[in-house]
Amino acid sequence: MQTYLEDCLWGKFLLLKGDFISDHMQVYGEWSEAEVALFRLLLTPESTVVEVGSNIGTHAVALAKLCAKGRIYCFEPQRPIFTLLCANLALNGIVNAHALHCAVGGEAGEVEIETSDYSQPFNYGSFSIDKGFSTESAYAAGTWREPVRLTTLDSEPALRGLQRLDFLKIDVEGLEVPVLQGGEALIRRHQPMIFCEANKVETFGAITGALRRQGYTPYWFAAQRFRESNFKRSTRVIQGSDVNLIAFPANRPRPALDLIEATSFDQITSGQVKAFMLK
Fold first, then answer.
1. Strand 167-170 to 193-197 pairing
2. 81-132: per-residue pLDDT in tens?
3. For helices 33-42 and 58-66, angle between their N-to-C axes, nearest 10 degrees
4. Strand arrangement of the beta sheet that strand 193-197 belongs to
């Protein structure tokens, strides 16, 4: 595991050599900034945010700064990645973030997950607690397993005293439904906006079904990663976009954005949903 420091849009970051997201941060000084622009529209300085799957903190730092008078609760199960998350919160003087080294799912307990020495170039943001490193592609380096605490949003002690929850962000590589099921009471009580990755046809129906059963309407938010006006003004174009859902409860007004309700995964595959681009 080799790390290095980089000056980026939202502050100084400790990055991981060979990591996919870290490579983007090195080239552009930012990661999926179109998503952060959406967060800026939806949140206030007093907002409380829960982020399930914080990775190294590229969005956690931005969210903590956007909600400087509020709180953010960051969950990350990979122990070496969690140490980078904590380092990046500390490097940027973030004191309103609560970082928790645990996995989030549909039940509480303990789970064994894959780990490694993190020296293999890879997309460590694609890690999932059930498939480990091989969620999107085969992992070429050696691995071993180690236990990590498994919690639910409803049973997590750090969340019991919440007076408000404005925004729930979920990026768990295919395990979105268990996270939603394990947080039904929290979601029902606070009615947060929910931002959830939905880039797999296999899980799309289950995710949107779970959201609708809880009284939410999901909309597509597909974002290009590259911006012409990126922080480092790099002209190098790394192709790629991220496909997510932004879901609003019935009692919360939807912002005036050109969003398309998510009714079928064919909307993405047929190109009906265009990726947001910020110049």
1. parallel
2. 999 999 999 999 999 999 999 999 999 999 999 999 999 999 999 999 999 9
3. 30
4. 97-100, 71-75, 48-52, 167-170, 193-197, 241-249, 216-224
